[in-house]
Write a structure and sequence with these properties.
alpha+beta; SH3 type barrels; five-stranded antiparallel sheet; 2 domains; rod-shaped
């Protein structure tokens, strides 16, 4: 009987303190939802909107990269597809949703970068002479 009374007293004490914590729990959960929105949902929707704008503004001659890593130049459009030229006389048709980004001009011409950078061996040999 004594154990039953102690258990009953513990149950009553715990329900009283739990009722005081409900507003703080709701505030904590609300704060978590706001943080989740600011860190996850909002940046992802911005990125998706930016990608959709880029895909809708494609024009012939743009260099693009597909999700599969294929580099090509836009040569034509279908209703839901884009025709890419990937090599001389080689054209493929991909879905618009498969295009991940526009290729920058710097990445399109790696030969220019290699011509502009000094020869590593020449720079090492000049350092050894000093």
């Amino acid at each position: 009987m004594l154990g039953f009374i102690n258990l009953q007293a513990l149950l009553l004490a715990s329900t009283g303190s739990g009722a005081e914590g409900i507003p703080s729990l709701i505030l904590f959960l609300g704060l978590l939802v706001v943080i989740w929105y600011l860190l996850i949902i909002r940046p992802q929707s911005r990125q998706r909107r930016k990608l959709q704008d880029m895909i809708s503004n494609l024009k012939t001659g743009d260099r693009v990269v597909t999700n599969g890593g294929i580099l090509g130049t836009v040569t034509g459009f279908g209703s839901n597809t884009v025709q890419l030229q990937v090599a001389n006389q080689v054209k493929i048709e991909v879905l618009r949703s498969a295009i991940s980004s526009l290729q920058s001009d710097d990445a399109a011409s790696p030969a220019k970068k290699s011509d502009e950078t000094p020869d590593r061996e020449a720079s090492l040999s000049s350092k050894g002479r000093k």
